[in-house]
Amino acid sequence: MDDDGDRRSKVQRLYDACDAVFSPGKKGGLPTLAQIRWLRGILDGMEAADVGIDAGAGGEEGEMRSSSSSSDDEASPMAAARRLLSTRGFTRITYVHIHECDDFSMGVFCFPAGATLPLHDHPHMVVLSKLLYGSMRVSSYDWVTAPRSRSGPRKGGLAKVVAVDELREAPCRASVLFPRSGGNIHTLTAATPCALLDVLAPPYAEDLGRPSTFSDMPVPSLSGFAVLEQAELPEDFRVAGAPYVGPELVVSSKKGPELVVDMDLYD
Ligand SMILES: [Fe+2]
């Protein structure tokens, strides 16, 4: 429970806030800066255990463990939150799916040291990412012009460099990228084992071509820019899946007026 008397789990607060911001009819279009600050504030207060992940324990891949031996909480709603997924034994990038609806998704990418998510885009999407533990290197671009098909079905174009091998180490603030700014096309490499809690709005949709992966080629005469061209994923690239064991989410089926979210509390 939080100090302000809010009995919701942190992940529930995140879900409720995402639902308020991203569900259709609530806003439409891009979220406002106040909404982004609100979501970012919630993410900044979250740790791995808040989404059922053990940041520090050893153990085998996918092993569950309990962070508490007390039994008197077993009947409490928070007891489920004490089951933690150990990620220490993961040997490839593993996605822990928390929630997905038409408007947004929530999930955690767990990286073993050295693993890389290839350069990929987030077309028409807003993405908030909180590094829960560990450290990663980020290189990113934004399109200078909207990507066009260059040869056959592949798309590409000129992009501006936003970050080059930038080191992010937890604890750090959540990052935000927008459709045309913030480093919409990025590649992530784990410097140490790490985990990234992602909110994507709208979610990825492979049938709509989201995401695409790219190769990048610097432009020698134009420092700070590169030509990106759509590329196939490396043949051996796979993302594994692991179960979400964090606090149970109460998911609204387009809720009525009973839940009032006061954004001013978080600004
Ligand atoms: Fe991404």
Which properties best describe this structure?
single chain, 267 residues, mainly beta, Jelly Rolls, seven-stranded antiparallel sheet, 36% strand, binds fe (ii) ion
Description:
- β14 (214-218) and β15 (225-230) form a beta hairpin.
- Mean pLDDT is 84; it is low at 57-61, 68-81 and 255-267.
- The chain has helices at residues 10-22, 33-44, and strands spanning 53-54, 64-66, 83-86, 94-100, 105-111, 116-120, 126-133, 135-143, 148-151, 154-169, 175-177, 185-190, 194-201, 214-218, 225-230, 240-242.
- It is mostly beta strands.
- The chain contains 2 helices and 16 strands.
- It is globular.
- It has a single domain, classed as Jelly Rolls (Sandwich).
- The strands form 3 sheets. Strands 6, 8, 9, 10, 12, 14 and 15 form a 7-stranded antiparallel sheet that branches. A 6-stranded mixed sheet has the order 11-7-13-5-4-16, covered by helices on one side. Strands 1-3-2 form a 3-stranded mixed sheet, with no helix packed on it.
- Bound molecules: fe (ii) ion.
- Fe (ii) ion is lined by residues 120, 122, 186.
- Belongs to the cysteine dioxygenase family.
- This is cysteine dioxygenase.
Which helices and strands occur, and which strands form pairs?
Layout: H1 10-22, H2 33-44, E1 53-54, E2 64-66, E3 83-86, E4 94-100, E5 105-111, E6 116-120, E7 126-133, E8 135-143, E9 148-151, E10 154-169, E11 175-177, E12 185-190, E13 194-201, E14 214-218, E15 225-230, E16 240-242
Parallel strand pairs: 1-3, 4-16
Antiparallel strand pairs: 2-3, 4-5, 5-13, 6-12, 7-11, 7-13, 8-10, 8-12, 9-10, 10-15, 14-15
Helix pairs in contact: 1-2
Region (Disordered): 54-78
Family: Belongs to the cysteine dioxygenase family.
Catalytic activity: L-cysteine + O2 = 3-sulfino-L-alanine + H(+)
